[in-house]
Amino acid sequence: MPHKTIEDAYKYGRQNLKEHKDESAALHARLLLMHVLGLSHEDFICAQKNDISASQLKQYEEYVCAAAKGKPVSKIIGSKEFYGLEFIVSEDVLDPRPETEIIVDKLLAIIKEDGVESPHILDMGTGSGCIPISLLKNHTGMRATALDISSKALDIARQNAQKHGVSDRIKFIESDWGDNCEGVFDYIVSNPPYIETKTIESLDENVRNYDPILALDGGEDGFDAYKKIFNDVKRLIRPQGKALLEIGYNQGAEIQRIAKLYGFAVDALIQDFSGHNRIIAISTGKK
After folding, report:
1. Is the domain of 162 the same as that of 277?
2. What is the mean pLDDT of residues 187-202?
3. Which of 21, 35, 80, 180 is 20 to 30 Å from the Cα of 154, by its Cα?
4. Coil, strand, or helix at residue 98?
């Protein structure tokens, strides 16, 4: 049956993705079609009975086919929502994930509690820039520095900073963690790679094949990046500063042990929506 209206096309996409075991078939079919048509959610709802052109339908069918084969919708349409904002993404950056929003929530609360009016934050391994940009959008007195070893990731992060109007308050540096960074910062954040190398091959295909391995592979034990980060944080954080780092769901006990070996006080382990330890909050222990 030919798909002549937007509603027909949407039903086709939803059914196709559902048949391919996509648990979010309706959402993904809608996002793909909205992208093809250039419509907002509200306009999409109102346009259900409108005709869809042959070229638009062809593009939509190609997108649905790619999604059915496992390509993440975010990588198809080139954007992903994080903390209420749309971020440009590509296969050069890790897709922003809901769990990482906890870093933004918690740090904003800590800054308010500390009474720091003009904090300078450092994001190590910024990827798309979703963490520092979300922080800047929610704190007008903040400045940020964002590091990444990937020049392609930094290009995406710069585009996102421009898109969200914070380019004048964020500095990007190509750096292997803190190697090329100088100065001291009030707060440091990071979502480093923490998956054991041997586990990479068992990840879902839509992660393993479309997110950069550099942003996933944490080495033999999953802690390679943390050891480098902890060493850099000692040099880059002010005496009363604090750092929030995302961790794997089963890494809480070991990451606390490593943090203490590097001389940090563990202020808290913060849980995610599933009740797993997801963020470690550390400080120098100085008041």
Report:
1. yes
2. 91
3. 35
4. helix
Map 230-284 to HEC letters: HHHHHHHEEEEEEEEEECCCCCHHHHHHHHHHCCCEEEEEEECCCCCEEEEEEEC
Strands 237-246, 277-283: parallel, antiparallel or unpaired by DSSP?
antiparallel
pLDDT at residue 1, rounded to an integer = 44
- Asked whether residue 29 falls in the same domain as residue 96, the answer is no
What pLDDT was estimated at residue 166?
Answer: 98
Domain assignment of residue 203, given as a range: 90-283
Domain boundary residue, one of 18, 40, 69: 69
Question: 152 in helix, strand or coil?
Answer: helix
Longest dimension (CA), the chain: 70
Nearest to 186 by CA among 157, 154, 145, 158: 145
Burial 141-151 (b: 16+ CB within 10 A, else e): ebbbbbbbebe
DSSP for residue 202 = G
Q: Are residues 104 and 162 in the same domain?
A: yes
Q: Which residues contact 88 (CB under 8 A, 6 or more apart)?
A: 78, 79, 128, 156, 159, 160, 163
pTM (two decimals) = 0.92
Average pLDDT over residues 197-205: 84
